[in-house]
Amino acid sequence: MVTTAARDDSFNYRLWRYDGAPGELIPLLQSAQDHFGYIPRRAIGYISGVTGIPESEVYGVITFYSQFRLQPMGKYVIKACDGTACHVQNSRMIIDTLEDELGIEVNGTTEDGLFTLSTVACIGCCSLAPVLMINEETHGRLTPQSVRKLLREYRRREEAARAQQGAASCGDRA
Ligand code: FES
After folding, report:
1. Which of 102, 101, 122, 127 has its CA nearest to residue 112?
2. C-alpha 6 – ligand 1 centre gap (Å)
3. d(C-alpha 135, C-alpha 145), whole Å
4. Residue 149 CB neighbours (<10 A)
5. Rounded to the nearest whole angstrom, what is the distance from the C-alpha of residue 153 to the centroid of ligand 1?
6. Ligand 1 in contact with 120 (CB < 6 A)?
7. Which pick of 12, 15, 24, 133 has the fewest CB atoms within 10 Å?
């Protein structure tokens, strides 16, 4: 059963209840992102169609606020800490290394859909600065070298998982 609270927050509910009151677009975009995991092109079309706000304007709001994403999140979400303790331990260099190695900027997702890079203000492990999280795993006392090694390790794990899946599906057909 859908609760009233869940229904009130849903994208469809908000969309069809839209009455043009000021400030309604942001919560509408937030609910679209909660629903899809990002804001797909078709959601921008729905929003524009129902609200009468031109797509270009909706797109402008999305790109203005860093909380909104136009791409799905990667399988591995990297949260690089740029809080004070990490900052003084050169977190900028860590973030630059991540951007360089992944070929994306902060808030981007790699083309293979594997990694999304974001920054956070504090992970709560300041004594391990500079720190990052990949999904639920925390990694600290980072250097550019250890970051490169870490990414290689995740890529290796991913390749191994794919190879195993491939072998399993071949086994299914045997
Ligand atoms: S400032 Fe980075 S973990 Fe606290």
Report:
1. 102
2. 33
3. 20
4. 11
5. 23
6. no
7. 12
Q: Domains, the chain, ranges and CATH? A: 4-64 (no CATH), 76-173 (3.40.30.10)
Give how far Cα 85 sits from Cα of 17, 121, 125, 139, 157, Å: 45, 10, 9, 15, 31
Residue with token string 């808030």:
107
d(CA 34, CA 49): 20
Q: Kindly give the confidence (pLDDT) of every residue in the chain, 174 residues in length, as a single tens digit, with 9 standing for 90 and above.
A: 444 444 456 888 778 788 877 788 999 999 999 888 899 999 999 999 988 999 999 999 999 998 898 888 999 999 999 999 999 999 999 999 999 999 999 988 999 999 999 999 999 999 999 999 999 999 999 999 999 999 999 999 999 988 888 877 776 655
